[in-house]
User: Which sequence fits this backbone?
């Protein structure tokens, strides 16, 4: 029996999120179904770095699983390809030690959120980029507003209010906002962990700043208020991507096995 | 009663092509349903520059329709937005003279076909870019192979064999092949008219040249053979976009009303 770590990408549009739920099509469900097929019906489970919600995409989700199959690392992605639906893909598979754990061993994660700002929506982006209808939008204010979030803070203001976790203290290693195409902008957040809906609430608040419903300084004020009601709305999930999960000194990149 | 010309975009993924068919979801069907709603149930029809097949997209399809509604040009797109599904969009609407005809008055059309060449498919592009699995691909040969197609020719070799049209002579004003992103390439064809599956068969033949199953010179030989069996396969429609339709001296651009 060997333990394997797999980096996977999926288009979240047609999934009810990551986690198995009865009667729903989920990423975990499809992945386990495929893995079970590769194991001739032996019931297989996978453990992910964390869940993603409905409509949320992944470029570099990481899972681990155990297998008796003697398949070389480089062959696994092709094997998965024969059993997985077209909206998900195993990008790379690596042999890891028997105690590797996709969730507990993750040291950092990167999420990206894509925004399109303008008067016209784009039919081709409706599942992949969040559209903000605006004539004027202060991108520089958005960029500046993210600065106070970097570091270790209690992020209660940016956490879904019904969440039950012991501590809402997390560390953001990086938070940036860059233009990626005409009219398209991307938020990047790298942190040691993320609260439920944290990225989507930060983005919703930043959009209020870009649209000048809030001032740049309000982000810092809201952070320290530790009050979900002070922050902006939770933006829809289809602009959000789990981009990368990092383990120890070794980064896992979405495009390959490094 | 006034005649209007509308430029529309649609994601062809969830449509059974342009033309109304009983029991199928089509672009024309959804557009006429929306227009009928805007007219309080009065049965409305639209006439397009031409049909597109299932899975084929449009950035600049053009239609005309007649209406008693007193809506200014700039307001029409917003009105359509309230009644159309999210995978189609009216980009601009212009008042035209009463004899304007979207099909008969078109002087040229531009189609683009997007290709991804590499060892890995991309889950996010599966409905929008045709993936060619290849280690080696001669892009320069593809580019050169298109040259003999430019001009006025009998394109019988690149026409679905069951097509019943009087003449298979068409004029290609331009045919090019350029890189648009990492691993992504785009064919552009501008012509006075296109035979059924013409672009998809030309692309299928060009892919054979890129993969070195055919030589660059074979494109010219196949063109002059006027024999569909000599050409390559009809590639899938999801890489194809009706990009622009031109009328007289006035170009219609997908992004605006010029």
Assistant:
């Amino acid at each position: 029996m060997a333990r394997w770590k797999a980096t996977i990408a999926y288009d979240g549009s047609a999934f009810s999120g990551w986690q198995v739920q009865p009667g729903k099509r989920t990423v975990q469900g499809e992945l386990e179904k495929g893995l079970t097929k590769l194991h001739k019906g032996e019931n297989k489970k996978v453990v992910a770095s964390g869940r993603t919600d409905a409509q949320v995409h992944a470029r570099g989700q990481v899972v681990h699983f155990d297998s008796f199959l003697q398949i070389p690392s480089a062959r696994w992605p092709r094997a998965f390809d024969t059993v997985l639906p077209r909206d998900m893909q195993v990008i790379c598979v690596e042999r890891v030690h028997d105690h590797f754990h996709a969730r507990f061993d993750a040291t950092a994660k990167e999420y990206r959120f894509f925004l399109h700002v303008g008067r016209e929506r784009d039919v081709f982006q409706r599942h992949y980029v969040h559209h903000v209808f605006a004539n004027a939008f202060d991108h520089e204010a958005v960029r500046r507003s993210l600065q106070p979030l970097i570091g270790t803070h209690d992020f209660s203001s940016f956490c879904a209010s019904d969440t039950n976790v012991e501590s809402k203290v997390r560390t953001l290693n990086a938070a940036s906002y860059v233009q990626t195409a005409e009219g398209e902008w991307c938020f990047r957040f790298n942190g040691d962990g993320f609260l439920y809906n944290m990225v989507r609430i930060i983005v919703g608040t930043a959009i209020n700043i870009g649209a000048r419903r809030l001032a740049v300084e309000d982000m810092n004020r809201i952070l320290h208020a530790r009050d979900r009601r002070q922050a902006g709305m939770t933006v829809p999930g289809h602009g959000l991507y789990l981009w990368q999960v990092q383990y120890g000194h070794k980064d896992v990149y979405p495009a390959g096995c490094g």
Observations:
- Residues 251-256 of chain A have pLDDT under 50 and may be disordered.
- DSSP finds five helices and eleven strands in chain A.
